[in-house]
Amino acid sequence: MTRLAQIDGFDRKLLAIVQHDADTPTDILAERVGLSASAVLRRLKRLKADGVILANVATVDPLRVGKPTFFVVALEIERERPELLGRLRQWLNADAHVQEVFYVTGSADFILIVAAPDVESYDALMSRLIADNPNVRRFTTNVALGVGKRSLAIPIDL
């Protein structure tokens, strides 16, 4: 089980800022949180080492790179045996089009966010998913007509 990291108010302020702009210069971060630049660097290094900060990534504008279509997919599975779930999770994690995977309660077992260049590519992906994972009972798809907000930022209580 993952342990909670020991983070204080300074760490929380840093996390709130870098989630929205990881390129914020250290001197600006130091000024905003009330620490020295070297203290900020040490804290960021510790937060990465502790697994609080998983990655520094760039958010890409989908309209400028080919305008993918976003699909929200609800998967239902036959059996929830650990080895079958593990294989499905590995398959989903290995495909670059599958952006997010949520194991959920309710009528679906998984909710996926998929970005594909077009409907044909999405259909081919789902055909491979069903062929490679016979434990998938069925899936339903919602096509995003527009994107009002995209974010992976976790709200941080300050």
UniProtKB/TrEMBL annotation:
Gene Ontology, cellular component aspect: cytosol
Pfam families given in the database record: AsnC_trans_reg, HTH_AsnC-type
Keywords: DNA-binding, Transcription, Transcription regulation
SUPFAM superfamilies membership: Dimeric alpha+beta barrel, Winged helix' DNA-binding domain
Residue ranges of every copy of the HTH asnC-type domain listed in the record: 7-68
One GO-annotated biological process of the protein: response to amino acid
PROSITE patterns registered for this protein in UniProt: HTH_ASNC_2
The protein, known as: Lrp/AsnC family transcriptional regulator
GO molecular function annotations of the record: sequence-specific DNA binding
InterPro entries on file: ArsR-like_HTH, AsnC-type_HTH_dom, Dimeric_a/b-barrel, Tscrpt_reg_AsnC-like, Tscrpt_reg_AsnC/Lrp_C, WH-like_DNA-bd_sf, WH_DNA-bd_sf
Ranges in coiled-coil conformation: none
